[in-house]
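Changelog note: in this version the structure field was regenerated for every chain. One regenerated record is shown below for reference.
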Amino acid sequence: MRGRVCAGVAVLVLALGPASVPAQVEMAPFREFTGFVQVLEGDLIAVNGTLVRLYGIDAPEMGQICRSGRGQRYDCGVAARNILSRLIGDREVACSAYSEQASGELIARCRIGRADLGAAMVRRGWAFPMPSLTNRYTGEEAHAQAAEAGVWSGWAQRPWVWRNQQERTGRR
């Protein structure tokens, strides 16, 4: 009976098409690749020249100002980029691409060994999980908040809120 239920669900999903699959469903990657990295932002890297946005996270933007626990202003986008750069170092990453943007940028989960870079950035408090895409990193965010790690040691807007505000005020 169980096999028929699973097969029935698969048929239903296929019949409805990919647009009807909820965002919380983990999809199989369409491309696996490895390579050396240039870190561009806290959630954007170039792997062998291909732009890759880390799946499921949103790091502060370059130029986004946050406040430390002591109230000092700093560019938390630069800080996030620097943390990701230190995490990767000169090691090779392995990525699993889930989608491709019209610009050619890939959306992928990338790892060093078994360590998920998105999870590492959220756990260190330098990126936010994107619940509209996945619930994968909510535990890491709770850990970062409790530890007052990264941006959680002071004040920061979530990057999507900051970008929206920049667009409304014409600064972007």
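Spot check on this record: The chain has five helices and eleven strands. Residues 1-25 have pLDDT under 50 and may be disordered.
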